[in-house]
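User: Hi! I'm a student and our assignment asks us to look at how structure tokens line up with a sequence. Could you show me two examples?

Assistant: Happy to help. In each example below, the sequence comes first and the structure tokens follow. Example one:
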Amino acid sequence: MELELRHLRVLCAIADSGSVGRAALALGFTQPALSTQLRRIERLLGEGLFVRRSTGMELTAYGAQVVSQAREVLARADTLGRRHMGRRPTAAAPTLRLGVTNTPVVPTLLDTLRDACPDLRVCVRGVYATGELLGLLETGELDAALGVDYPGLPVRHSSAMAHRAINTVPIFVALHVGHSLAHRVEVPLEELSEDTWFVAPDDGVGWPGAFYDACQAAGFRPAGTHEFHALDQLQSMIAKGLGVTAVQPTVRPIDGVLIKPLAGNPLWQRHLLIWRREAVEASVAEALHHHAVRVHRNLLAQAPHLQRWVTHAYSAARLPDGLKAASSRPG
């Protein structure tokens, strides 16, 4: 076996996601196949690169050196590929045009970038659907975007773009404080079969299909639905007992609203950084990803309903790797 670019991408994917399973999902492999690939790479290099801990897959000191060099090699290979196709690599635009979907990281991320990257100017464009963000990236109207996809439905884009996972989190449910299931630590999805659901519209990458598939797997189709996604108004309607809705675990509930995990975690969402290779320098993409990961994990650590679930999941020894790291970090 000789080390190839695809092997370097495997190492970077595992390092970025902190999990062989999520890396496999992102790269289109099965988890056993990617585990075998990792063992072969480690045998070739003569030393272990990762250690499995309670927080997920962590790089060894040697592994950190290898992944750092792998990123440099991959960046240079991308540059060579662009030159080979007759295109000159372009510098990052004076202003980074960043598209964002419904994600809570934006205010803190922009504040963090202002301090960490003072020479980087960011112009934000809010868009509901990740599918629309992808279209704006493809046409060159955006340089980078914060979007989402879903396990089993990885985001698809042209070779002109790249993406990297920020985090993968379970989707929770928001319900009225007087709901009959308000006392539950976790809410079984099938016991919400008679509730009216507020369902966000098509996001172009798998929602609400993923929601309806989960309902079908639970043995029902919602009795009544409203298509709605404006979060402030949505919470007001939930607070009045008009229905329930799926939400990100980082949502801060208003008075009258409870945020609860769904039993068995039937719904997941992966948060992504997506960017145009020619429009965003590697160092800028690295900074965006690094700070987005930190901000998102801190938000998870500050969500009391999530931390209650984390404590419960720890006691049952079934907490997913992607959230163990967030649970161990201070706000």
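Example two works the same way, sequence first and then tokens:
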Amino acid sequence: MIEQMRTVAAVLNLAVAAVLVAACHGSAAPPAKAAQVTGVRSATKTAKPVAPQPAVGALFLGGTDAHTCTASVVHSRTQDLILTAAHCLADGLPATFVPGFDETAAPDAVWTVGAVYLDPRWVGSQDPKADYAFARVSRAAGGTLESVAGHALMLGMAPARSGAVTVLGYPGGVGGQPLGCDTSVAIDADGYPSLRCGGLVDGTSGGPWITGATVIGVTGGWNGGGCEDNVSYSAPFDAATASLLARAEAGGPGDAAPASFDSEC
């Protein structure tokens, strides 16, 4: 959605001035938008504040106190990986992650993002169907992310048909708690998982779409989440997503994220 897609653009501009504010939203969707939401239920729910969850956290970009996106702890052999939207990361800007973020964070609750692993389609052309990223994190106090957080989500695949899902995300800014929405996911005509839920504002990009203990998507994909504030999208998780997780588990050098992001919104 527009506010989600403007997140990185805002950070790239404001980090230079050491000032980060929430991006505005609410402009009209492009004419093709109606076709994009085909297959999504007409009823729209509204995201509401929920208690922080240990496997979901706020992502801070640019070395400020303002979080700009959402990420989640994903289960891995190395137990040190997070999952977010690829458009939430930009080359040259430091990033940190706080699982279970709740208003504030103690120094030992902050994990520094190291190597970032991106689908080649995203690196090459910012293909929206590859708008996901895994990243290795660490902290000075040591330990693995999964052992300290106490919980991690299993990586799953995009559903073949409609199904129940919970989407979580942190509104951008300083402090705050996450928003959550229990709704249903469907696959649109272009192959993107999509859901209806109002109130998923700036900062919720990268937030996990959860079924049970499995993450089947993250807010992003088509125009980084869509151009309406009540309809969200995800890149379709498939074998390429699982392959990227395996590459991240294996270690080695990561990928340089594009320094900017373009949206049709």
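Here is something you could point out in your write-up. The helical segments are 2-16, 33-36, 120-125, 145-149, 239-250.
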